Amino acid sequence: MSTLRRMTFTVVTASSLAAALSGCSLLPTPSVSDWPRHVKTNFMNACKQTSNGQGGYCKCALDTLEKTYDIDGYTALENKLEDSEEAVNEFMSVIQPCLDSIG
Question: What pTM did the predictor assign?
């Protein structure tokens, strides 16, 4: 597994339980993030660990994911990442601008 893919998988896996336990929303794109604080914290902690402390990248990725998915949409995508190349590609396309920013 490539480092980038491993980093992506680790980041999203770390927040999966918290996301699964959070409140429900059926809005496809929320105007204000409905992500619980603990999900955001877990994401940032896992991301920083797997990206050698790239806090700016992690914040960008989190912000972009929050703007793209409500918590249910993110959880659904996250649950598919381990077994679906399509889900990995979708995830990577969303955070690609953040990856580009770190070179």
Answer: 0.69
